[in-house]
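User: My collaborator sent over this chain with a note saying "see what the structure looks like." That's all I know about it. Can you take a look?
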Amino acid sequence: MDKLIPIERIENRIYLIRGTKVMLDKDLATLYGVKTKNLNKGVVRNRKRFPIDFMFQLNKEEYDRLRFQIGTLKQGQHSKYLPYVFTENGVAMLSSILRSERAIEVNIQIMRAFTHLRQLISSHKELAHKINELEKKHSKHEIEITTVFKLLKKLMEPVIVQPKPAKPIGFLADRKDK
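Assistant: Without extra context I'll predict from the sequence alone. Here is the result:
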């Protein structure tokens, strides 16, 4: 199955809508090898399995933004109905209503894609944190280096030493008789 559907192909069909990573019903239907209409019929028959945090229907504005993001669709190639989108949990729940071998294999691949995206996001957060730490250290070192250079410049300045008046050499007696 890994060779049938590359993980990148699945990842490219995961969108961020309402702050949640989701997949469109039509993309899932294509991956599962069923018609979108049949996928949605199965979901409607098992509606209790799909609460709002598993699946929701896009509103017109969300759908228009998504169509713009994907690219303008040709006439007749998009549904007259607003699509449903499935969260990671919703995709997992689809496996309970789609029972073919292909559905099982596709579900496994989709779960791997969601996991891979989570790992990427996590590594980006760690990387951003490390970059911030380096910037802080760099700033601290920059201040320390600037201080060292100032001190070095002071040490390199010529020091003009005023000679002290020379003390007379020899013995001088106090003369009180003068």
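A starting point for your reply to your collaborator: The chain has six helices and four strands.
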